[in-house]
Amino acid sequence: MPARARREEIARLAASSGPASVEELSRRFEVTPSTIRRDLSRLAEEGALARTYGGAIPLAAGESTLRERESEAHPAKRALGAWARRQIRPGEHVLLDGGSTVGELARELAGAGPEAALHVTALGLNALHRLEEVEGIELVSPGGAVRRSSQSFIGPITEAALSRMTFDRAYLSSDGVTAEHGLCEAGPEQTRLKELMAAQSAEVTVLADSTKLGHRPFHSWARLPLPWTLVTDDGADPRQLELFRRSGVEVQVVDLP
């Protein structure tokens, strides 16, 4: 079978049958495991599926890639990133989640001078790239597996590294957020990591533009310990904001230019 046809069939199988392992695919197509790994890497780069340990899974229904999300609600994300930057004090240890909105905070931090003396741990490859040469920032990567769709670290290696660190502030992202359930993500591996990040941080802030409020595209949730802060833009529905306030969440609304 030609390589392109094989990759198309792998993507079809993942979409129809769910998770597939390298070994299973290798036997099915009668090729070496290394060939299957190259196929999976190619499909992940094309956004056809997501890599896992030893195999692949289809992207969750409705899940977009980081590149797609970076163009959505961009003015609001830039405003939230700028607001968050003003809260960070010199010398603090800051934890940055993956995602497009937290990536805008990293863009703001790239302007920090030597006097900032910040210690930044970043899960997103976008944040790491933006901060890798910034003087005044000690940059740490927790390592782990890279989740292709979000371009961020995830998994037991990431969790083990974070469990051995504490932070003054954590800035989290989310695919959706509700007052009742917390942060909505595509799978339990992501929600477990969010809860760990919150547990290791003295202050927890969720940066979520107004389109994320009340949005529940998936069925996995991270419950954050109170108090935590929700930062959103002035397009948010006041009724949604009141639900968060009643649940004990501090709400900050950022006015857009």
The total count of helices amounts to 10
Q: Mean pLDDT score, rounded?
A: 89
Helical proportion, percent range: 25-40%
CATH topology of the largest domain: Rossmann fold
Rg, Cα atoms, Å: 19 Å
CATH class of the largest domain: Alpha Beta
* Count of all domains: 2
Order of helices and strands: HEHHEEHHEHEHEEEHEEEHEEEHE
Looking at the structure, what is the overall shape? globular
**Unreliable residue runs:** none
Largest sheet: 7 strands, parallel
Q: Number of DSSP strands?
A: 15
In terms of DSSP E residues, the strand content is 15-25%
Spatial separation of the terminal alpha carbons: 55 Å
Main-sheet strand order equals: 6-5-4-9-12-14-15
Structural class: alpha/beta
Named at the architecture level, the CATH assignment of the largest domain is 3-Layer(aba) Sandwich
Pfam families: DeoRC, HTH_DeoR
GO molecular function, one term: DNA-binding transcription factor activity
InterPro entries: Carb_Metab_HTH_regulators, DeoR-like_C, DeoR_HTH, NagB/RpiA_transferase-like, WH-like_DNA-bd_sf, WH_DNA-bd_sf
Domain HTH deoR-type: 3-58
Question: What can you tell me about this protein's structure?
Answer:
- With 257 residues, the chain is of the alpha/beta class.
- The protein is built from ten helices and 15 strands.
- It folds into two domains: 3-57, Winged helix-like DNA-binding domain superfamily/Winged helix DNA-binding domain (Arc Repressor Mutant, subunit A, Orthogonal Bundle); 68-254, Rossmann fold (3-Layer(aba) Sandwich), CATH 3.40.50.
- It has helices at 3-17, 22-29, 33-45, 66-70, 74-87, 100-109, 125-131, 156-162, 188-199, 238-246, and strands at 20-21, 50-52, 55-57, 93-96, 118-122, 137-140, 145-147, 152-154, 167-172, 176-178, 182-185, 201-207, 220-222, 229-233, 250-254.
- The chain has a seven-stranded parallel β-sheet, with helices on both faces. Strands 1-3-2 form a three-stranded antiparallel β-sheet.
- A hairpin with a 4-residue loop joins strand 7 (145-147) and strand 8 (152-154).
